[in-house]
Amino acid sequence: MSPDIALTTRGLGVTYGKFVALADMDLDIRRNSVHSIIGPNGAGKTTMFHALTGRVMPSHGQILLNGTDITKFRDDERVRQGIARSFQVTSLFPTLPVSENLRLAAQGKTPWAALAPWRMAEANRPAMATAAEVMERMNLTAVHNRPAGELSHGQQRRLEVGMAMAAKPSVILMDEPTSGMGVEDIEEMKRLIRDLGRDHTVLFIEHNMGIVMNISDTITVMRLGRKLTEGPPAAVRENPDVQSAYLGSMITGDMA
Amino acid sequence: MLLINRPLVQFGLALLTVLALPLFLRSGILASEVLIYALIAAACNLLLGYTGLLSFGQGIFFGLGSYVAGIFLTRYGVPVWMVLIMATLLGAAVATLVGWLSIRRQGVYFVMLTLAFSQLFYFLAYTFSDLTGGDNGLMDVPRPDLGAGPMNNAWSFYIFVAVSFLVLFALMLQATQSTFGRTLIAVRDNEERAAAIGFPVKAFKTAAFAISGAVTAYGGALKAMLIGVAPLANIEHHTSEMILIMTIIGGSTSLFASVIGAAAYMILADVLSQIWPRWLLLLGLALVCVALFLQKGLWGLIEKLWVMFFQKDQSLEKKEAEH
């Protein structure tokens, strides 16, 4: 395997009974690239994320992360291997302050040390520093003491992505990071994702074509649980299959 | 965090309780019982309030602790300190097993599993009557003798219970403040996310069970020494229910809430049972009221009053800052 590939899947498949949610998925995600997954609803995008993060165990195929076969790893074990994700539907610790949400996310990288009932949470300086860093980067420092459940939608989405960043993953998976965001917040998130691509490998699902076409290095188009096509934005935009299958007028629209 | 929920204040309140009980209660037995149940309810709170696990299995660990005391003190004359350690370790071991198996399922199925284990251990105790005394339980469990003769006076045993209570309460407070306790709260808040950010959730839940079971078994051993009997009733599901009711009445937002819950239950039961033999009916009514109107329990009420009278300014400031 080439060393500049961070994440590889071979023949990855997920079936629920007779229903095939994902089949024959071969992916090679280049290191420090921004790779987006697009496709109509029900194309299997989120299912693939679940399979990659271990939320769902794949029925077929193989997943390699930085050369390690993680196909059989539990979700929490994969975090230690360097995968982190954000969710399409915001999933935070709603009663806990923003800073505690991020401290936990940073501690999640060394979870067994957290099992000690005598060790104080604040004693983990690196985790505290990471939490502060992410808050600064996500513009959440002003609300660090507020329970996550009380934040505005845009702030919650930023925290959602911040939770994935706090694990300092080599590959970061984002499931519709801009879902439900206002226009200004979207610009901010676009800048952030591009920025993340410099020192992380970013894999994200997105419906906003403006973002996808602008910041992706590679786009994978999915349909009915399979890969339809893959390539750089320009090639995908011109592909007639893609145009008829999914994008249609959307692609010629907002290109900001 | 509210001032009254800070760990040092919570410990101060526990210390105050220990000092106040002898002033208000005439019976040293009742006072000791209050502290023992306070300890056990706090251990239950570790699961219910901090981890979000409603366990009907607490009676198992309580009963085991009292049997360990009964068997090893009466038949083998093992020294008290060693018996207490044995009870604690066995409690932790069995709780690890029961917890580890029960957390395989979530929600209602988890609750049903703990209930099933509670029945299982009850019938085990009932069946192995050579060991447990079956229906009769184990009689003549002695109180500890720390050099000055056995503690025949209930109040001298109270001191022994009080010291145990304070030490274990402090340890549990420490656990809730640690990375471990903070992770439990995260698991309670959003288990899926806790797993997604890398925590092996099952290990944390099992560890919470182990600690809870250890403390509960220690309390069971104390109870057997207090009343001199290790009855079958201690391992019955009714005991589990009682522990849960105390915890819920007290509230699950802090450990001291459980002390309030246990004290309210025991003292209310003592007063009511002298007035009316069907006193449990009134207690049921009290539980209905808590479930309907006081979901954060008595401690929730105290928190509310505290904010109203003492931290009014602070809550106002906070509101203004938000505008």
Quick tags:
heterodimer; A: 256 residues; alpha/beta; 2 domains; 6-stranded mixed beta sheet; 4-stranded antiparallel beta sheet; B: 323 residues; mainly alpha; ABC transporter involved in vitamin B12 uptake, BtuC; disordered C terminus; Branched-chain amino acid ABC transporter permease (chain B); LivM-like (chain B); cell membrane (chain B)
Could you provide a short overview of the structure?
Chain A is built from 9 helices and 10 strands. With 256 residues, chain A is of the alpha/beta class. Chain B is built from 15 helices and no strands.
Task: Tell me about this structure.
The complex is a heterodimer of chains A (256) and B (323). Chain A has 256 residues and is α/β, with parallel strands linked by helices. Chain A has 9 helices and 10 strands. Chain A has 2 domains: 1-82 and 169-256, Rossmann fold, CATH 3.40.50.300; 90-167, no CATH class. Chain A has helices at residues 45-53, 75-81, 98-107, 125-137, 153-165, 183-199, 209-215, 233-238, 240-247; strands at residues 5-16, 19-30, 34-38, 60-65, 68-69, 83-86, 171-175, 201-205, 218-223, 226-231. In chain A, helix 3 packs parallel to helix 5 (153-165). Chain A is globular, with a radius of gyration of 18 Å. Chain B is mostly helical. Chain B has a single domain (24-322), classed as ABC transporter involved in vitamin B12 uptake, BtuC, CATH 1.10.3470. Chain B is built from 15 helices and no strands. Chain B is globular. Chain B starts with 6 loop residues before the first helix and ends with a helix. Chain A binds chain B through residues 53, 55, 74-76, 79-80, 84-85, 87, 91-96, 100, 104-105, 107-109, 111-121, 123-124, 163, 166-167, and chain B through 171, 174-175, 177-183, 185-186, 189-190, 192-201, 203-204, 207, 211. Chain B: The chain crosses the membrane at residues 30-48, 53-74, 80-101, 108-129, 155-173, 207-230, 242-268, 280-302. Chain B: Keywords: Cell membrane, Membrane, Transmembrane, Transmembrane helix. Chain B: Pfam families: BPD_transp_2.
